[in-house]
Write a structure and sequence with these properties.
The chain has 446 residues and is an alpha/beta fold. The chain folds into 4 domains: 88 residues, 2-Layer Sandwich (GMP Synthetase, Chain A, domain 3), CATH 3.30.300.180; 167 residues, 3-Layer(aba) Sandwich (Rossmann fold), CATH 3.40.50; 74 residues, Helicase, Ruva Protein, domain 3; 91 residues, Orthogonal Bundle (Chromosomal Replication Initiator Protein Dnaa, Chain: A), CATH 1.10.1750. It contains 21 helices and 9 strands. β1 and β2 form a beta hairpin.
Amino acid sequence: MKASWNDIKAAIKKRIPSHSFRMWIEPLQFVKGGEERLVISSPNFFSKKRVQDHYSALIEKEIKKTFGKTCEFIIKVSGGNGNSQAKTDKNLQLSLPNIDIRPSGGCFLRKDFTFDQFVVGGNNDFAYSASLSLASRKDTQQNSLFLLSKTGMGKSHLSQAIGHHILSEYPSDRVYYITAEEFSNEMIHAFRHDCIDKFKSKYRNKCDVLLLEDVHHLSGKERTQIELALTLDTLYESNKKIIFSSCYLPADIPKLNDKLISRLSCGLISNIDPPNFNTRVRILKKKSNARGYNISKEVTQYLASELTNDVRQLESGLIGVAAKSSLLGVPVDLSLAASVVKNIIRQHKTITIDVIKKLVCKHYSISVNDIVSTSRKQSVVQPRQIAIYLSRRYTDSSLQAIGKSFNRYHATALHSINSVERGLKEDGTMQKKVDFFLQKLESGKF
């Protein structure tokens, strides 16, 4: 019977993506079997539920094909050695459906940001493999990973997928998921309230896995950089796992001290590129199925051929056609898809740095010469910062090119972007100002 189960697994391997097989089917082990029942073991409750939800029909089909008849199929949770044993309530909580999972510290992990929901292609297969390897192995020489990509390529998805996998495989591990901005704010709060020792202990002594997003936001924050470098030293020495993500290589982040650059660069650095056509098609199919959309192959391929920037643009197009179809009560066809795509592409093709400058200057009643001048008046500084932020968001220009367009160094341009992003979180007024420009740009009224 054990040999038959191995044959069944081999057949399943040919039917599903290799990464899905490695994660969910390969760990399933034969326990016992008879003429009417086959019992296999799964390493944990999370894995058991995933197999039951997504692969049970396929497994039952292969069992019937192998044995020539229907056979009851039972999954039991093992303790890692094939013996079924009870789990604690803490472990059981991890498999609850439709909720975001909160790790030991920091932000919640999005429930859909798992390895199983990540579409692997030539643009990201190395990053995926590196992330899965780091998450799966308890003892490994490579404990640090730096995920590098432009916004909207999937680095946050992979980072959080590592957190999900570790929480499911090693529930006792303390996983901290946090952005660099939030790390900095937490440290400042600790200093102000005389609890810096508690802050240090939290990250140095009570953290097994650190997921630190958007490390480029540490630019210019000298005290935070010093504290983080010391924390990373402790974590590295204790063989803890550390995952960073950023839009920039460590050495390209301005106003970052050499010690921290060295710590960020000492692990594996993996780049994620824009997806190719076939990968875009698979992404659209995956997201359509997840949302319950009924999108034809023709429309899916059309969206994949036209929306080539990043995953977020693809998702925007998919949601756009589904929403327009629902609101107008018409089917999703090529004509409707073309009207949605035309809007999205027009925005990206016509929005340039010069367009953004003129729009912002007109609204604030200042000249283009003012916005690129050396003036430090608040009436000029804030419009300039907003224009730089919008230039980064809506154009493909590099940070250096944006800075040069405003007669600024790229370090100053990054500082402006960070200032606006911080204002969006803390200041309702800033949110209203930026929303005004977003509406103008996205409507094409500029």
